Amino acid sequence: MKTPALLMMLFSNLLVIVVSGYYFWRVLTTGAAPDSPEEEDTNYPRGG
Asked: What is the rounded radius of gyration, in angstroms, for the C-alpha atoms of the chain?
């Protein structure tokens, strides 16, 4: 393999690893979504 092809392959692999790692880290460090409201709260007031 010639030098330019090797460098391009290494750069491409590193780029994919860095981007994947970045999004993986973002998923791990973001907090959980807030809990959905209780059914009692969403249907209140009842009746007419």
From this structure: 24
